[in-house]
Amino acid sequence: MKILVGYKRVVDYNVRIQVKPDGSGVVTEGVKLSANPFDDIALEEALRLREKGIASEVVVATIAPADAQAHLRNGLAMGANRAVHVVTSEAIQPLTAARALLKLVEKEQPQIVLLGKQAIDDDCNQTGQMLAALWNRPQATFASKVEVSGNTAKVTREVDAGLETIEVDLPAVITTDLRLNEPRFIKLPDIMKAKSKPLETLQLADLGVASGDTLKTTNYAPPAKRSKGVMVKDAAELVAALKTKGLL
Amino acid sequence: MSKILIIAEHLNGKLNPSTARCVSCAQAIKAAAIDVLVLADAPDAIAAEAAKIAGVSKVLAVANPASAHALAAVYAPQVVAAASGYSHVFAPSTTFGKDVAPRVAALLGVAQVSDIMSVVDAHTFTRPIYAGNAIVTVQAPADQTVVATVRTASWPAAAGGGSAPVEALTLNVEVPSHTRFVELAQGSSERPDLQSASKVVSGGRGVGSAENFAIIFKLADKIGAAVGASRAAVDAGYVPSDLQVGQTGKIIAPELYVAIGISGAIQHLTGIKDAGTIVAINKDAEAPIYEIADIGLVGDLFKIIPELEAALG
User: Fold this and answer.
1) Which stretches of A12-111 are assigned E, i.e. beta strand?
2) Which of A19, A129, A169 sits opposite B102 (nearest CB)?
3) Which chain B residues have a beta carbon less than 8 Å from that of A245?
4) Angle in degrees, 0-180, between the axes of helices B214-223 and B301-312, rounded to the nearest 10
5) Are residues B209 and B135 in the same domain?
6) Chain B contacts of A164, Cβ < 8 Å?
7) Is residue A230 classed as helix, strand or coil in its secondary structure?
8) Based on the structure, what is the number of domains in chain B?
9) Is residue B177 part of a domain?
10) pLDDT, tens digit only, all 313 positions of chain B
């Protein structure tokens, strides 16, 4: 069984995001870029399925500018067998990403596509669901547990009401939530090994994908600030303050 | 003129309050119609609830045994069939809406707008990115159906007292059998629902253990609040994941939010910044939670909580 992993490069989660004063975007020049944390979890899950003997090959794929090769080498160092880099200089939207991933799916014929439930830059939470729709296959989003047996997967999902378990026929798309696993650290020898692993490069323009980038972002603004609060000295004063506000 | 279709969220025969919040958002667009679509095995009681939301033009009830559970793969083709003639399709940005809306958009071949915070006009909206550290204005094409999720914390629930007509609708849509519901493990709780509660008491890593969390529950019960938790507390196993508040958990907007032993990581603050009044209780006076708290109290939570209970009488 082959697993395809969507592996997006994003601004590192530790970076404090600054909106440009002219509202044209957020500052990304010179900031640290890393794998989307949810995609790291997706890759880790794929690797574990391979280690259990369920999967035989793990392919990481990204859709990103030409300088994202090092990002894919990270995925290879973590343990993926090979990588596919779909090159585009534009930042694409989820529908385009899903259409491009579908092309990879048609070519690679994976039984499972694993992706993060959302990327921590645009926070869209769409690509996996859109891919599943276009592929006409099941989706199991927000996974906190994945059990594969034969041609089905039982997936436990973190939903607002609690934990929902669904069963899906394979092939299927699974998107990962935080508590699915803890991704492994990359070891130095693996970084060396990753250098010789296959990394295929494709141009997005050559995939024959219709652009779905129809949303136009016209302004970026910092969030509204809450005004500075007051400090109280003890519990009695706190209760009094809340009663004054009519909250108790 | 816009015609808006809202996908109702429901569980165990009851309408979720997130639906009425979507109606509020829809009302911000000057629409000719705001209709609610109820997909269920037995939609009548749910549809009757939806009909009472003020501002709803009509409720479309689609009975289908396949819709007994909210599976996106089963719901999406039905939504697409029902959406014909509508300019907008809205769903709440809860785990339900986030699951189904992108599937609907992709089937329609259109983009999806996630987490509408405010409406500029019928095709222009603001939404958060980077965990709420930036707010973007996005414009959807006017010649395509707008599929969007509504950030429920940004919108009040539309009032009750309406009496919209309910129409039974039959959709001739083939739904897949490749996705099957197995079970839902729900924390059985008499407490208010975290997503919609007007008061929430949350505990963080500072609470220290699952056993210690009992004092958080006790305080919450005393003031009739729901209980939440930080990601650190959930990761440490103190409470189940459905209590997590933050960027990747629930985003809530209660009138009162009491954060106890929560330092205030950015991803947690993202989930609470629309709360009416934020109270922070922490032993570290430098904790970032105090930057957004309306009322702060520095000290040992194990000493302060009993004092609070005493002061509450």
Assistant:
1) 33-35, 57-64, 82-87
2) A129
3) 277
4) 20
5) no
6) 181, 183-185
7) strand
8) 2
9) no
10) 899 999 999 999 999 999 999 999 999 998 999 999 999 999 999 999 999 999 999 999 999 999 999 999 999 999 999 999 999 999 999 999 999 999 999 999 999 999 999 999 999 999 999 988 999 999 999 999 999 999 998 999 999 999 999 999 999 999 999 999 999 998 766 788 898 889 999 999 999 999 999 999 999 999 999 999 999 999 999 999 999 999 888 999 899 999 999 999 988 998 998 899 999 999 999 999 999 999 999 999 999 999 999 999 8
Domain match, B153 and B223 both? no
* Own/partner long-range contacts of B14-17 (Cβ < 8 Å, ≥24 apart): B14/B45, B14/B46, B14/B49, B15/B46, B15/B49, B15/B50, B16/B92, B16/B94, B16/B96, B17/B157, B17/B193, B17/B195, B17/B196
Same domain for B149 and B244? no
Whether residue B121 is found in the same domain as residue B47: yes
Chain B residues near residue A248 by CB distance under 8 angstroms: 223, 312
Task: Give the CATH number for residue B256.
Answer: 3.40.50.1220
Q: With respect to residue B133, please indicate whether it lies within any of the assigned structural domains.
A: yes
Angle between helix A235-244 and helix B301-312 axes, rounded to 10 deg: 50
Residues 128-167 of A with CB under 8 A from B: 128-134, 136-142, 144, 154, 157-167
In angstroms, the separation between the Cα of residue A189 and the nearest Cα of chain B is: 30
Structural domain span for residue B300 = 199-312
Of A15, A28, A38, nearest to A65 (Cα)? Answer: A28
Residue recorded with tokens 């970084």: A191
Contact list, A236 vs chain B (CB under 8 Å): 307, 311
Cβ distance B259 to B290 under 8 Å? Answer: no
Q: How far is CA A199 from the centre of its chain?
A: 20
Same domain assignment for residues B6 and B149: yes
Contacting B residues, span 145-174, partner chain A, CB-CB under 8 Å: none
Q: Is the pTM of this model over 0.90?
A: yes
Q: Which stretches of A184-234 are DSSP H helices?
A: 188-194
Backbone φ and ψ for B97, nearest 5 degrees, come out as -65, -40
Check if A80 contacts B (Cβ < 8 Å): no
Same domain, B20 and B66: yes
Query: Is A203 in contact with A103 (CB distance < 8 Å)?
Result: no
